[in-house]
Amino acid sequence: MSDVQAETPTVADFARTFRRIQAEIHKMIIGHEQAVEELLSALFAGGHVLIEGVPGTGKTTLVKTLGLALNLSFNRIQFTVDLMPADITGTRVILSGEDGRREFTFQPGPAFCHILLGDEINRATPKTQSALLEAMAELQVTVSGTTYRLKPPYFVMATLNPIEMEGTYPLPEAQLDRFLFKVRLNYPDEGELTRIIASTTGPDDAGIEPIFHAAEAPERIEALKRLVREVMAAPAMEIYAARLVRATQPQNSRFVTDEARAVHDEMVNRYVMFGSSPRGAQALILGAKVRALLDGRANIAREDIEQVAVAALAHRIMLNYAALSDGIDAAHIVERVIKSVRAAKV
Amino acid sequence: MSFPSQDKRADEKLRQIIGRVGSVRVRLNSLAIQHAIFYTLAIAIAGGAAVFAGAYVLTPLVFLVGSAALLVIAVIGIAGAIGAAWRMRASAARAAAIADDRAELKGRLSTIVALAHSENRGSLWAYLVEDTLGREDEFAAARIERRRVSRGIYPLAGALVLAALAYPISKIKHAPQIISGSGQDDLTVDLDDLHLRPADPGDESGMQVTADAATMRRLQDKLAREGAAGGDAAGNSLNQLMNRARDMAGNLQNKLTGQPAASRQRLNLRLADAGGDQDRNEIHRAPDQQKNRHSDVAGQFKQDQPKSKAELDLPQADDSRQPNSQPSPGGTGEAGVESNAGKDNPNQDDSATDRSIQQSGENSNNGGEAHGIGADPDSLFGAPAASKLGNEGFEIAIEARPVDHGAKGAGHAYVPPKVRTPLSLNQEPDEPVARAAVPAEDRTTIKRVFER
Predict the structure, then answer these.
(1) What Å distances lie between residue B112 and A37, A116, A232, A298, CA to CA?
(2) Cross-strand partners of B265
(3) Which residues does A302 contact at the CB level (< 8 Å), separation at least 6?
(4) Which residues, including other chains, have CB under 8 Å from residue B301's CB and lie 6 or more apart?
(5) Is the dihedral of CA B253, B254, B255, B257 positive or negative?
(6) Contacts of B371 (CB under 8 A, 6+ apart)
(7) Residue A261 and residue A278: Cα distance in Å, rounded?
(8) Mean pLDDT, chain A cut into blocks of 10 residues (346 residues total)
(9) CB-CB: which of B114, B115, B124 is closest to A230?
(10) d(Cα A77, Cα A90) in Å, to the nearest integer?
(11) DSSP assignment of B159-216, as one string?
(12) Of B293, B288, B287, B292, whose CA–CA distance to B268 is shortest?
């Protein structure tokens, strides 16, 4: 454990802290460099992450390791079909006082922590899934008419199992939209798999060294998050992000207005049912700001936006059946959109 | 909290960066202006050179069409060049974006320029300015844009070379057009193989055709036939338009080439069955240049000058009736045919036997249909011929071309045997009918007859 930065972090402090957290995580997580970077970017951008991956790719381990490295409180909820909202937010229970009187007392649920892992979130009913909405968006939960604040930093990571779809409840679009990034964990390649075997079947356990003291960790992380917000975005960059988002929206959508100035790609018109919401543009800029700080800059560039575009936009794009039948995924659409907007130079 | 001295230093640094971006902008805009100027000049010079060369080497109609096309292309090209320069112009923001791209500054300059006058710059503004100023060498104007002179200089240089070449090209191309007086073998042409068309005022053949009355009559007949073959009411108006266009183009060509109208040359025709009267119907380059006397060939014309494309120009209207006829471009607008009919009569001298009728194609508005045959009702009544009876000359504007159908491979057309039939004692040589003044009361009747 060491002091990483002063009270007011600088650009260099941010990059150094970020790289140290990364390094700690990779003591446990072999490979998945991009996923880890996107995960941390979402954390410092103040968003939440949806992690999609097949079983055994280290989703839960990744989240646990992050909690350990940041030295923040960490909870895990295994979503099942019989999970109730109160199992997440907490509930009022009758407790006996010292004087023998019984009264309702709020018993906080697992949502009350800094880092929350919702494992296989698509196995819970929509009602339970939506219990997370308020916590994610407002950093508060309301139980029996009483609102309880969550302590920042609050970071929700939900994992999705893309297989075994039977008996699952796909996340509603509104809830998907509340995740800043969607991170995909693919199968490790041969080299990574060999290292995973070596590191996990031996007698030594990889010791994760927390970056912050437990007491000061929340404040340090919040300071770094504030620094991210200080990164400057020129109007041209904001316009570029807006164009990217608008280009994901199909031309024939009844929700699209002022289409004359939008860049349209034929693939979008053919395969996309609904494009990204404005939250997608916010995610682009926030993610780009983190990328800029990592590059030692106080301003965002077009490259920063493009680097986070797939993570920020792919899960916000609803594809139609033609895309499913043709094997087109949202990431491919986003890449096409980037090329179209870059070429259009509107 | 920042101290005033710190703010002052930060402002100076900001001004330094903005100044660098400004110098980049100046250079980019200078190139844009140069682009517009160079390309405009290049197009104008190349177009002018092409028109100048075309004035020498093209026939008026081709010249007119080509010049018009060139004008349109030039206007489009100049508009395109100016439009491109307009698109190349750089605002401060664009100059910063270009500098960012070329120096790989990842939007630093764009952000500074965009937020320089913003109130809410954030706590990282000073860091951004400092960080950017530390890279000032990377976005110096000379590194962002090395060129001081636009690439448009190359097209301009090419246009200048083209212009320099246009003059000798025009001279080279122009020389063969002038019919040389130096003799080659005679060119014998069957009248039936001559293709006649209305005179082209800008044609540079510069010939004047003279012949005896009989020859001229045959030429007239042929011209009338060919005119009738291609003419109806619509054709007439089209011909008129074409003639006007030719005249206009010819005049322009004249101005460009500086050729005087008098430079036209004369081509004399003779009727080949004139027997021993070799003096009459002699084809000569000019009346005073009769030098070669050749055996007559019935129904054929002979030309004593080399010309692969023998074109005979006959003016369309009588000069005496069209005193305001314009000289045609290249000096050929008044080219015509002179009839030497008077030479049939040995008692008359050469000058007395010349018949000269000159028609101006421009003023007759007659196109090719009734070209020079006197059948146009609108031009029936001119001033009476000035020359005395039997001495009337005329000139008809035609363009003629020998086509060697009948004598292909033989070198000369069929030569019929000479038949000379002496006049009886009661016969006298034909006298051409002189043009006389037509009484005003008869004009309506005569005009009606010709209109029929």
Answers:
(1) 28, 39, 9, 10
(2) B207
(3) A237, A240, B107
(4) B188, B189, B190, B191, B194, B211, B215, B269, B270, B272, B283
(5) positive
(6) B198, B199, B223, B224, B227, B314, B316, B359, B361, B364, B396, B397, B398
(7) 17
(8) 61 92 89 90 93 83 86 89 89 84 87 90 86 84 87 89 74 86 88 83 77 88 93 91 91 68 80 90 95 93 93 92 90 92 76
(9) B124
(10) 12
(11) HHHHHHHHHHHHHHHHGGGSPP-S--S-EEEEGGGEEEEE--TT-TT-EEEE--HHHH
(12) B287
Contact A170, A129 (CB under 8 A): no
B109: its two tokens = 């300059």
Q: Would you say A81 and A128 are in contact if contact means Cβ atoms under 8 Å apart?
A: no
Tell me whether 0.85 is exceeded by the ipTM.
no
How far is Cα of residue A20 from the mean position of the Cα atoms in its chain? 20
Q: Give the N- to C-terminal CA distance of chain A in Å, as an integer.
A: 50
Q: A296 at the B interface (CB within 8 A)? A: yes
Q: Which residues contact B415 (CB under 8 A, 6 or more apart)?
A: B297, B298, B300
Q: Give A230's contacts in chain B (Cβ within 8 Å).
A: 122-124
What is the distance between the alpha carbons of residues A183 and A157, in angstroms, rounded to a whole number?
A: 10
Report the DSSP pairing between strands B194-198 and B398-402. Answer: antiparallel
pTM: 0.64
User: Do the Cβ atoms of B107 and A299 come within 8 Å?
Assistant: yes
For residue A51, the cross-strand partners are A159, A183
A12, two tokens: 């260099």
- Torsions phi, psi of A108, nearest 5? -60, 145
Count of other CB atoms within 10 angstroms of residue B350: 13
Contact between residue A283 and residue A265 where contact means Cβ atoms under 8 Å apart: no
* A299 contacts B106? CB cut-off 8 A: yes
Scan for tokens 């909405």, then name that residue: A133
For testing contact with chain A, the best of B87, B112, B127, B128 (most A CBs within 10 A): B127
